[in-house]
Structure formats: C-alpha cells, structure tokens
Design goal:
Largest sheet of chain A: 3 strands, antiparallel
Distance between the termini of chain A: 34 Å
Helix content of chain A: 40-55%
Strand content of chain A: 5-15%
Oligomer: heterodimer
Radius of gyration of chain A: 26 Å
Strand order of the largest sheet of chain B: 1-4-5-9-10-12-13-15
Strand content of chain B: 25-35%
Largest interface: A-B, 58 and 43 residues
Shape of chain A: globular
Radius of gyration of chain B: 25 Å
Helix content of chain B: 10-25%
Distance between the termini of chain B: 60 Å
Strand order of the largest sheet of chain A: 2-4-5
Order of helices and strands of chain B: HEHHHEEHHEEEEEEEEEEHHEE
Number of domains of chain B: 2
C-alpha cells in the first residue's frame, strides 16, 4: 500500500518534470540562480543555467545513462529496461538524439529505470558505496544527510550543481516519503527517483550566457562546455575535476581547456568514448535484431553476435587508443581479439580458451581489416546467405560516407532466387540482375566492393566456392582494381574518402547535429590536421575538443523550440 | 602509445578508485600483446563425440540365432517360488529397477553377483554366431589360430569385406540387450560424455603435409578439459578449441601411434599401446587399449571424421567396467554369464605361465568433430611413440 502510494507520487513528479520542460520559458524566467553546492563560494559566480537559457538538447542514450549511473553510484547499480530507440540522422544517433519525441510509453521506461536505480541505491547491501552519510536515525528524516546526498549526487547527474529550488524539491519529496514510510531511505529513494526523471538529467542541455568578450554575443556556459567535452571523449557525464574546472571558469580559457582535454584523452575512459562513437558510426544497433538461419549456420547464436561486436570494438580500441595508430590501418590490420565462439567461426584455435585472446592472422589470410570481421560481413548479409550488394552499400555509406540510393520498388528477384537457378554464385546472380537499367547504376557502385568479401559466407565463415562453383572475388573501388579481400582492404586504406568520412562523422557526432555550410572550412582544417598527425584519432579528438568551433552556440535554426515534444 | 590514467568508482567512495582501476586493468590486459603463432598448423584435431562398442546388427538379428540374453533379474526371478516372489516384491508391485538390488544379491550367501560373478553359475551366454563384424586384424593370423601371444578364436569378416577381423568383445556383447542399439548403456554414456565433458577423447594427427594423402603422420590421444559447444541443432559444433588435460608438464594422456592418410582415410601403420580416458554411466577408467589401430574417414571439408578404433582390451579392466554397471538401471544382463564368456573368449596377451589370454580383441565405433587441440604454452614434454609389444 505504502509502496504504491509512493510510486504514484513519483510518477506525478516525473510527469510534472516533462511539463516544466515543455513550457520552460514561462515557468522559469531567467534569473541569477544560487547554487546548492557543498562548498566553494566561487561556485555562485557560475550559477547553473535556468531552463530558458537552453539552446540545444540531446537525450541521453542507454549507454550514457548506464555509464552515468555507474560512475555516480558504482557498478553494482544496474539499469533495467530499454529506452526508446533514437532516430539516426546524418548517419548518427548522436545527431538524432537532438530530435526526440518523448512518448508516454517512452517516458514510462525512464520512470521504471529511475525507480529501479533509486531502489538499488538505498538497498542496505549497497549503501556503503552509494550513500555519503548515515542518518542519525533510519526512521526519521535527517536533513543534513539528505542534503549532502542530493547536492552531491545531483551535481553529477545534472552535470551542474542543483539550484536551490531543484534541491528543495527533492528534499521536500524525501521528507514526505520518510514521514509516510517511517524510513529515511524510502524518502531518499523517492527523491532520487524524481531527480532521475527530470529533463535536466535525461537530456544533455546546452545553455548559453552573455559572452563577456564580445558584447551582444552569447557563448555556451562552462557546464555546457564540460558536458560537450565529456560526452565526446568519455561518453559520460563530467567528473569532479571537469565540473570544478567549469565552476571556476577555467574551461573558458584556452589553457584550462587544453589541460582538461589532455587529462581526458590520457584517461582510460577515452576507450568508452571511442567505443560509443564507432558503435554509432558503424550502426551496431543492427546487432539487436541480427538473425541467422540456424539450419544453414548452426554455429551462429546470440553469444556470437555479442562477441562479434566486442571483437570489432577491441580492434578499434587497440589500433586507435592503445597503439595510438593510423586510422587507415583499421582496414588492413591483422591483429585481432578472438573469443571461443568467434574462433569457431574463423576456424582457428582460441588463443585463450575461456577468455578473449590476441590473435594475428597470417600474411596469406583473407581476414584483413575490420571490414572482414564477422561483425561486418555477417551483419551486412541476409539471414541465409551473403550479400555483396548490402556489404558494398555498407562500406560506401558507413565507411566512405557516400549515399547509395534505395532500390526501386518494383525489382524482380524471381529469376535468380528460384530453386535450381542456373546462377550458382552471387556474382552470376548480380550480373543477371544488373542488366536492368534501373538497377545497374547503383549496383556498379556497390557490387564490386561487396564481391571482394564473397569468401565470407552469410555467417562470416571462410569459403572458396558457392554451390560448388569457385568464387571470383575480384573487384574495383573508385578506379583501384583488386582480386580479393586483402586487395579491397588496401584500396580502402588508400582511399581519401575513408579519412574524410571519419572527420565528418566525428565532428557531427561531437556537435550533436549536422555541420552547417559555414562549418565546411572547419571540416577542411580538421582534415588537414588529421592527415598531419598521421591520421591518429586521438589527435583528431584533441583538435576538435580544443577548437572554439566545437563550443559554438548552435545556429538558430537548430536551436530547440520552446515546446519540446 | 597512449598512457591511460585510472577512473573512479562511486562518487561517494573515492577510496575504491584503486579497485575500480584494477578491474579495468584486467579488462585491458586482454589488449596487451601475447605470443603470436598458431601451434595447430600442420596438425588435424578431432574431439570424439560418440564412443560405442562396435556392434554389427543385421536386419533380422541373424547374428544372434538364440535370441537376446536373459538378465540378472530374470535368473533371480526364475529361481524363486511364487511365495518368495510375493514376499520379496511387495506382492509383485515392486518394479524391476526397484528390486534390482535384491536380484543382484542372488549369490548363495547373498553375494552381489556383479561383484562376485563366480558366486553362481548362470547358463552360458548367447554369443554372436554371425560372420560379419567391425574391427581390425589384430593377431596377425588369417585364421585365429593359437600363437604364443594369442589364443585360438574364430575370425570375422569385416563389414566392408576385409578378412580376418578380430573382435571377440562383439562376440561376447553382441546379443546382450544393453549394448545393442535398442539398449541404453552406451546411449546414456555418450549423452553424459557430451553434456558433462567426462572422458572426452581428443585425437591429434600431427606431421601432416597433405590432409588427404600423407604416408607418415603421428596420431596422439589426449583427454580434454574443455567440453563441447552445441549448435542450434543440439549437435557438437566443429572447430572448437580443446585444452589438453595436463599432469604437470606432461599430458595426463598422450600416447601416440604412427599412421598415414590415404584418400582422406586415416590409418595406423604401426599399432601401439595407448591409454584412453573412458567414462560411462558413473564409471571412470583409464582404458588400456593394446596393439591399437585406428581407421577414420575424414569428411571432405575436414569438419568431422568417423571410423573405428580397435585393440586388445584388458579383460580385468573390461570386467571392472561391466561389473560396476550391473547395479545400474541400465545393467540388464547376467553378470556371471558375461564374466564367464569374457574368460572363455579372451584372445590376446596370453600369459605364458597359465596359457590363458588376459585381453580381448575389441573395436569401438567413434564419431568426431574437428577441433583445435591446445597444448600448454612452452610445449609438452615429448611423448614416446607407442609400439605394440
């Protein structure tokens, strides 16, 4: 009974929070806000932005939500449920996160997650790690302890200190909850639930303030800068040092910013940021729905799918973070990491049975570069067979940032899908199909790329023939001819579009929006510096993170509207 | 190389940062270089998925003209009066399995006749009378005549027409319900092996220059510490990695024999004594298979190999296994009958003092899937090539 009444109250708070966001300009007129901070007086000078200052918003991704909760309350606190899928814009969820419809059902998922997190935080088993203090009595409201908890946790959850009003709201909820349940921790649970259902937590809000250097102009607040930086480099909320740098204004200085960028790039959390970017860029959300015909590919199961994603990310982290190597070498690298289930697919001995192990393919191996991994070849295939067209399209769109038009609606596949077809290989089927003028244009763009990967069947397993017919894996990419997958790997490595694409995607990912026409020059400069660095991703990240353009106020047409749906 | 600094855990417990950092170190440790190289190059590896006594069963059971043998239970039942049956079996309501512990103690002094098989004398076992069998020519003779090493016995013709096949184990067990395909002894044993990884035999063929034809290879037998992984159809998947069971620096098993590959069929060139891990229905054994020969047909894509492994099985070991099975629900046979038949039909390793043979010619049908056999880092202590004495 008590539980249900508390739940009802928390639901109301969450809903109210969304409504506040929808009409924020009227409800919260801009005013200097006093900051609820645990200590320094200097924090007052850098007060938290009020809602009317917000010019851009991005919904947290599931991974960001998880990461923040884990960093604030420790890894024992788990997230339950799944949040609404974001929309992919400009090839990235990070951009789609700024165009969000929050449906009642979608909000309900956040509500469920918030309650589950709050319950775990106050769980007696976790309190030693999750609570900063012990109340004088577990049955009565301890204002000092509650204030300490909400102000400290709230600073990390909101990526800025809570305003007095925000803090008071949580304290009032916690006090009422304690009184109703006769349990201090039940009160804290209610207050924390409401905190986690607030737009200030669920959305990365970017706020502006008058720019003291240029009269009449605005700039991002230091806390907004901190969030941009942290979500780009670590895919999580700012840590204590970064928030302090924001509070003191250090982030507004080139030197202070550079110090934080250097520190963050040297941190192990950079791996999280790099993983998040490539998970987004390479469209790994498709793994959630990946299925293979179990009769044709008995070796495939859900565990293989998870390991495949992990393998590719480990290769990326190894090459771009640990070795700090050339981005282009991702497409020719032979060093990889293999689990037991992947070893069966690649038909090699598991390097470390029962664990992930390092493995280097021999020089004559067809497995060369990330595009030859199971994660790529199986993800971009049909459930029962390979697809040179889908693979070629994926390389064009994901790795080279080149748009391939969708096929016409009236394509006739019957002639080569029929049983006992005379077309034994994908090449034969595609050659017959591409004689149609409406199809040939696009197929010329993608098939010669995908055909080079035909040595890998629909489940990424090596083969030399299809239906008893030897495979011809020759092809051509932008004028460069090759005869097999390693040849394609070299052609990709040497293709200028491969580096231009990652600059484009990473900068768009960083900004959370497509680049504007005015930012073309910035992109060019980034590309030149990327080349000068030897195509090191860490250099590109450092360049973006230190650049004023990264912290520019979003153009007016891309700023949030007052009525956020 | 980027130097990475640690990350914190909970914001409220910075003292736990070191622990959180240590966790990440463990994760990243997988990214540190290790020794490269593939130790399985030029070797073929197979994991035995099923191991069955090689039984040739004709459509009309011609090999057993006398029928299937009676069981311990039946012999016990036959020896009771109607009153005794009622008294001992809850007026006939007790199931056969429930009364097995009573039936097996049918020795004159209550002895368990599977532990003391000579305590009673059952009628002679119905043995195989057919002419065909799986197996190998083990004794070197064409007619099974008495030699200094072997005892006189009747030869079989191989199912494929090969003459002079020795398989006296089949002659003993071929008409025993539990070992035939409708029985449960080996079905259950194979199920346990597959699901529990018990007694998993690994076969490694090394020194392979050509996987289809090679006149000189070495065939080694190991025990695996890893179990099978099953595919969507519940069959063991090929190309898994199996670590060898070691006792210190040496494989716990690891005997080798010489062989060759002819058109994709692996054959023995020099028989030898090998030890095999053996498990069936809670019985563990280090099977001593002497003068071992093997014939495995490797399929075209190399993902599996099926065939027969044959050799002389110590009669003492064989009886230890069969005697132990006698108390199980699957033990539907006559222990005294089988014991007597083994002693009578044993044909190998003649004891020069007594003139009695101490082993029995045997053959086992095996199915395998291809796999990668993982030796310890740094390599094994070399195994000697076993040769028949």
């Amino acid at each position: 009974m008590l539980k249900s009444s508390l739940k009802g109250r928390m639901g109301m708070v969450g809903l109210a929070a969304v409504m506040v966001l929808a009409g924020c300009s009227e409800q919260n007129p801009a005013k200097p806000a006093k900051v609820a901070s645990s200590s320094s007086a200097t924090l007052v000078a850098y007060a938290a932005p009020v809602e009317s200052d917000v010019v851009a918003m991005r919904r947290l991704t599931s991974e960001q939500y998880q990461s923040i909760i884990s960093n604030v309350f420790g890894p024992r606190v788990k997230i339950v449920g799944k949040f609404d899928q974001l929309v992919r814009i400009n090839g990235l969820f990070a951009v789609g996160a700024a165009k969000v419809n929050m449906s009642p059902a979608g909000f309900e998922q956040f509500e469920i997650a918030a309650r589950a997190v709050a319950a775990q935080v106050v769980d007696p088993k976790n309190r030693a790690l999750t609570m900063p203090c012990v109340p004088a009595s577990p049955k009565a409201f301890d204002e000092a302890c509650a204030q300490r908890f909400f102000s400290q946790a709230g600073r990390f959850l909101f990526r800025r200190p809570l305003t007095d009003e925000e803090l008071k709201t949580r304290m009032d909820i916690a006090a009422a909850g304690t009184a109703a349940a006769g349990d201090f921790y039940a009160g804290v649970e209610s207050g924390l639930s409401s905190l986690l259902m607030t737009p200030a937590f669920l959305f990365i809000n970017e706020a502006v303030e008058p720019d003291p250097a240029v009269q009449g102009q605005k700039r991002l607040t230091a806390y907004s800068k901190a969030s941009r930086l942290s979500f780009l480099l670590w895919n999580t909320a700012p840590d204590d040092e970064l928030l302090t740098a924001a509070a003191t204004g250090a982030l507004h200085s080139e030197k202070g910013l550079a110090k934080q960028v250097d520190r963050m790039i040297a941190s192990r959390q950079l791996e999280g940021g790099v993983r998040a970017f490539f998970t987004d860029m390479l469209g790994f959300d498709k793994f959630d729905t990946l299925e293979k015909d179990s009769v044709l590919f008995p070796v495939y199961n859900a565990a293989v799918s998870l390991d495949a994603k992990e393998q590719l990310l480990r290769m990326i982290v190894e090459q771009l973070v640990v070795a700090d190597g050339d981005y282009r070498d991702l497409f020719t690298m032979r060093k990889t990491y293999i689990s037991d289930s992947l070893a069966r697919i690649y038909r090699v001995a598991a390097p470390k049975p029962g664990a992930w192990g390092e493995y280097t393919y021999p020089e004559n191996s067809p497995y060369t570069g990330i595009q030859s991994t199971f994660a790529f070849t199986a993800l971009h295939s049909h459930a029962g067979r390979s697809s040179p067209t889908i693979r070629g399209k994926a390389i064009r769109e994901l790795l080279l940032c080149q748009r391939v038009p969708d096929p016409p609606a009236n394509v006739n596949f019957a002639q080569f899908n029929a049983e006992h077809s005379e077309f034994k290989t994908a090449r034969q089927r595609l050659e017959a199909h591409s004689t149609s003028p409406s199809c040939s244009g696009c197929h010329k763009l993608v098939d010669p790329i995908g055909l080079a990967l035909e040595n890998f069947d629909g489940a990424g397993q090596y083969r030399t023939s299809e239906n008893g017919t030897p495979l011809d894996t020759s092809g051509k990419l932008d004028g460069i001819e090759y005869k097999d997958a390693p040849g394609l790997a070299l052609a990709l490595h040497n293709n200028n579009a491969i580096t231009g694409c990652v600059v484009n995607r990473l900068s768009s990912y960083a900004l959370g929006r497509p680049q504007t026409k005015d930012e073309k020059a910035w992109l060019t400069t980034l590309g030149e510096r990327f080349a000068a660095s030897g195509y090191r991703l860490t250099a590109l990240l450092r360049d973006i993170a230190n650049d004023k353009a990264f912290y520019a106020v979003p153009p007016a047409e891309q700023q949030v509207t007052q009525n956020v749906q | 190389m980027v130097s990475l600094s640690p990350i914190p855990s909970s914001i409220f417990r910075p003292s736990l940062r070191a622990a959180a950092g240590a966790g990440l170190v463990a994760v990243l440790a997988a990214l540190t270089p290790a020794k490269a190289g593939d130790p399985t190059s030029k070797t073929l590896g197979f994991a035995v998925t099923t191991f069955n006594t090689a039984m040739y069963e004709s459509r009309f059971m011609d090999e057993c003209p006398q029928g299937i043998n009676a069981t311990n239970d039946e012999f016990w039942w036959r020896g009771l009066s109607k009153e005794e049956r009622g008294r001992l079996t809850n007026n006939g309501d007790m199931t056969q399995i429930a009364r097995q512990h009573i039936a097996n103690h049918r020795g004159p002094n209550g002895e368990d006749i599977c532990q003391v098989p000579t305590a009673v004398k059952d009628p002679p076992l119905y043995t195989v009378r057919g002419k065909l069998a799986y197996g190998m020519k083990l004794d070197g003779t064409d007619d099974g005549k008495d030699t200094p090493k072997s005892c006189k016995h009747e030869k079989f013709t191989g199912v494929d027409g090969t003459p002079a096949i020795d398989n006296q184990l089949y002659r003993v067990l071929g008409c025993v319900y539990g070992w035939r395909s409708i029985g449960h002894i080996e079905t259950a044993a194979n199920g346990h092996r597959q699901t529990n990884g018990l007694g998993m035999i690994l076969i490694e063929v090394s020194g392979v220059d050509d996987a289809r034809n090679d006149d000189d290879v070495t065939i080694s037998f190991y025990r695996s510490v890893d179990t099978f992984t099953f595919g969507a159809s519940a069959s063991p998947l090929p190309y898994s990695t199996y670590r060898i069971d070691y006792d210190g620096e040496k494989p716990r098993y690891g005997d080798s024999i010489k062989g060759k590959i002819v058109d994709g069929v692996l054959k023995t060139t020099v028989p030898g004594d090998v030890k095999l891990p053996f498990y069936a229905n809670q019985s563990f054994q280090t099977m001593q298979l002497m003068d071992t020969q093997i014939e495995l047909k490797i399929n075209a894509d190399g993902s599996a190999a099926d065939g027969v492994i044959g050799g002389y099985y110590s009669t003492q070991q064989l009886w230890e296994y069969i005697g132990e099975q006698g108390w199980q629900p699957t033990g539907l046979y006559t222990c005294p009958g089988i014991y007597a038949a083994i002693q009578k039909l044993a044909d190998g390793h003649k004891d020069p003092k007594t003139g009695e043979c101490t082993s029995i010619s045997s053959a086992f049908k095996i199915k395998t899937v291809a796999g990668f056999i993982k030796h310890r880092d740094g390599g094994d202590k070399p195994n000697k090539i076993a040769q028949a004495q």
